[in-house]
Amino acid sequence: MSSEYDYNTIEVTRPRDSVALLTLNRPQRMNAISFEMFDEWHDFLPRLAKDESVRALVVTGAGRSFCAGLDLDDAEKLPQMSANEMMAGQEYWAGAFELFHDLPQPVIAAVNGPATGGGLGLALAADIRLASPEAKFNAAFVRIGLSAGDVGVSWSLPRVVGLGHAAEIMLTGRFLLGEEATRIGLANRLVEADGLLDAALDVAAEIASNSPFGITLTKRVLMANVDAGSLRNATEVENRGQTLATRGDDFSEALGAFREKRTPKFSGA
To answer: Which domain holds residue 241?
Structure first.
């Protein structure tokens, strides 16, 4: 897989069967997001979405940082942009985070260090977050004269930690270490640094062991029903998904394997 995806700011590998690993690879800049990295995300993620051999994606950072947000060298260019240029850029940059969120494959973030500003947004774009004790989260935007509502954080953060915690995090810009982040639900689990990536890959592999269609439907129903207006609306979506799932061969295979206590062999049908 790494030969298929050749980039300057990110590295793509295949460490487990059916699992891809995306490593932000600018350790000298604490994996800050450059304009070039945005371009590479926009190239990679639509291609990954169509890759049926990948059933889960793990995202992490090289070195001691997860992602330090927008590179300050590029941030300094923002005031020179016209309002039209800035709006177009903002839509393009935020759109990259939407691509992570909209992937059919579940995304697991292995947060190994600072996840600030856009790094927080990237962690929140994942479906599952594991953090090391060295992880540090903050909405850095508000500390540099911007709104803390950026790259989807104002939508995702309240849904993950609740409105009260989200308000404090976004209005103060303070740092949350891995232990506190885990306690309030920003991270699913705290894992020692030397085992963090393996733990994230284990979660990804466990997900990938389930039927591809079942996983896709599960992610879709989660995203749809977090904003469902009523239980009736939610079960309508669930009922359609279950009906579709039972039409494919993989349902019979999964059920048979479960009853026979064997590993299923999915065809994707």
So the answer is: 212-260
Closest CA to 96 of 49, 42, 149, 60: 42
Q: Work out how many domains the chain is built from and give that number.
A: 2
Q: In terms of Cα–Cα distance, which of 99, 128, 117, 127 is closest to 196?
A: 128
Whether 202 and 220 map to the same domain: the answer is no
Phi, psi of 137 (to 5 degrees): -115, 140
Whether 267 is covered by a domain: the verdict is: no
Residue 49 lies in a domain: yes
* Domain of residue 135, CATH code: 3.90.226.10
Token couple for 104:
């059919």
Helix axes 163-172, 153-161, angle to 10 degrees: 130
Provide the residue-wise pLDDT of the chain in tens; the chain has 269 residues: 545 788 999 999 999 999 999 999 999 999 999 999 999 999 999 999 999 999 999 999 999 999 999 998 998 898 899 999 999 999 999 999 999 999 999 999 999 999 999 999 999 999 999 999 999 999 998 888 888 999 999 999 999 999 999 999 999 999 999 999 999 999 999 999 999 999 999 999 999 999 988 999 999 998 888 888 888 887 888 787 878 887 888 888 887 888 898 888 888 76
Nearest-angstrom CA–CA distance, 157 and 155: 6
Please check whether residue 66 lies inside any domain of the structure: yes
0.85 exceeded by the pTM? yes
Residue with tokens 């016209």: 82
**63, amino acid identity:** G
